[in-house]
Design a protein that fits this description.
mainly beta; Elongation Factor Tu (Ef-tu), domain 3; Cathepsin B, Chain A; 2 domains; 13-stranded mixed beta sheet; 13% helix; globular
Length: 221
């Protein structure tokens, strides 16, 4: 199960303390509906259901947690969604022991039009064509959310961390290889970082990237 990690402050909503999740949950989940979670807030573990806000944004309710969280105070937060994740296929020819390839470099691929950045990142990491990535992911423009990207990495046997770190524009030292989520509207623009170089499906190879524009990242191992 994927873990989502961030820092967030305590709010009061309808006289109850809550934590607003700083990203769109629909971006990381293929299923839309109720989300039972296990959360850890400042070292305290508990289970609850996410409280909908609007259009994919949610709160973590704290009314049943026996802890004295202070309003407007930031705490370290993480959670996992307890529903069983989907799989692209049970019959993948790849595995962690037999991945599609060992990543020792990245070649730039640019998307021919907007809405294919997730598929393009997969194509670059797997060293396949964009058409092949589209076929594996079974999606077209604007359909490749981060949840589908993770499922595809699993299908291809490409190892990744089991957590997405949401930096929310803060300075961070990135790992050798990662998929970056860049702030862009309700969802994200995706690009690959490898060995300090940024491979952007729209802008090509970039020597630097403004971390203030980064929503978060997933490490590729």
């Amino acid at each position: 199960m994927m873990e989502y990690v961030f820092e967030q402050k305590i709010l009061v909503l309808n006289n109850e303390k809550v934590i607003e999740i700083p990203f769109n949950v629909w971006e990381v989940q293929e299923n839309i509906g109720d989300y039972p979670i296990e959360a850890v807030v400042n070292g305290i573990t508990f289970q609850c259901n996410l409280l909908p806000k609007k259009d994919g944004y949610y709160y973590i309710p704290l009314q049943n947690v026996q802890a004295d969280f202070e309003e407007e105070t930031f705490y370290p937060v993480s959670f996992t969604i307890l529903t069983e994740p989907q799989k692209i296929s049970e019959n993948s020819p790849y595995s962690i022991e037999n991945p599609i390839r060992k990543i020792e470099g990245v070649k730039i691929i640019t998307q021919p039009w907007d809405g294919l950045c997730g598929q393009t990142c997969i194509a670059m990491l797997a060293d396949i064509t964009l058409e092949e990535a589209n076929n594996i992911m079974h999606c077209r423009e604007w359909q490749a959310n981060m949840g589908k990207v993770v499922l595809t990495l699993d299908y291809l046997g490409i190892r990744h961390a089991n957590k997405i770190i949401y930096t929310q524009g803060k300075e961070v030292t990135l790992p050798k290889c990662s998929i970056i989520m860049e702030k862009m509207g309700r969802f994200s623009h995706y690009l690959v970082c490898y060995d300090g170089v940024y491979y952007d499906p729209t802008d090509g190879i970039l020597g630097e990237f403004d971390l203030a524009n980064m929503k978060g990242y997933l490490e590729i191992l």
